[in-house]
User: Fold this.
Amino acid sequence: MTFRVTVLGAGSIGIFVGGKLAAAGADVTFVGRPRLLDEIAATGLRLTDLDGGSDRVAPAAFAVATEPTSAATADLVLVTVKSAQTAVSAEQLVGRVRSDTVVLSLQNGIGNDTVIAEILPSCVVLAGMVMFNVVHRDGGVFHRGTAGGLAVADDPSLERFAPLFARAGLPLDRHADLLPVQWAKLLLNLNNPINALSGLPLRTELGQRDYRRCLALAQAEALAVMDRAQIRPARLTPLPPHLMVRALTMPDVLFSRISGRVVAVDPQARSSMADDLEQGRKTEIAWLSGEIVSLGRMVGVPTPVNACLMELIGLAERGDERRWSGADLLARLRSAKCDATEDAARPSDRA
Assistant:
């Protein structure tokens, strides 16, 4: 049986995942903006990875479209748009997608599947996460630059698609409860704003202690919020999250000995947030650091570090082209934390 797959959000992640499914024999339609669609329609796809893998997919082996009309006959819809476009994109499926179609959200952040399910109540809507980074290069080349696979919320409806994903080299890591994995991935993604502000490739940035100290501050703050909210993130790194925060602050030589998958990164890979800033697009900072800030307000835990990262990324979105050194960014985040501590300690003016 040939499965029909619509990829709603043909960016780097959507094209890589959809392209791998097309290479495995699926009938794939990419829905997105003309800029990338025109490129891949002309050149086809070359899908590579840091482990040396390579697939070529001819233009005739997939379809491209700017509207999701293909969803009407799709067996599976992959939603890979940025979190800010989730609701608008799901609305495009209303009246098109069948009730027996599985809709799989492969997005950053928490709760995108809930947004989609509210708009498409008759469909099976599942949460998922892409645990790797994809770098787009000219000529239809999309390169998996970090380790990782696909984590999804388990459901019987996935059983028929599992062989397809396995053939594609993207076996589904199925979880009865995906939330701990989503929160753990969010912890890792707190490096996205740091990487974007650094202007450096991920491996270079993570190889410098001061940038890692910035990440440790953001993650420690996030873990304090999660602890108060009784959220237990899954372990996705060589060490549990709380110990990984300590390891990030180690000298470079010591960190390199235990880092494992943390620095198993292609030399040219950057965060998607860095790419967004370079392309003049809005970032997903509100669904990363913003998620920590919002949860912190709910449970009464201050989050000055993540709030500061939101502020700096907001400035970058509005045209601030500053590239922060590790030392300068660390000083800025420590200052924000110190100011918040002093404010909390100051006697209230209320009678």
In short: The mean pLDDT is 94.
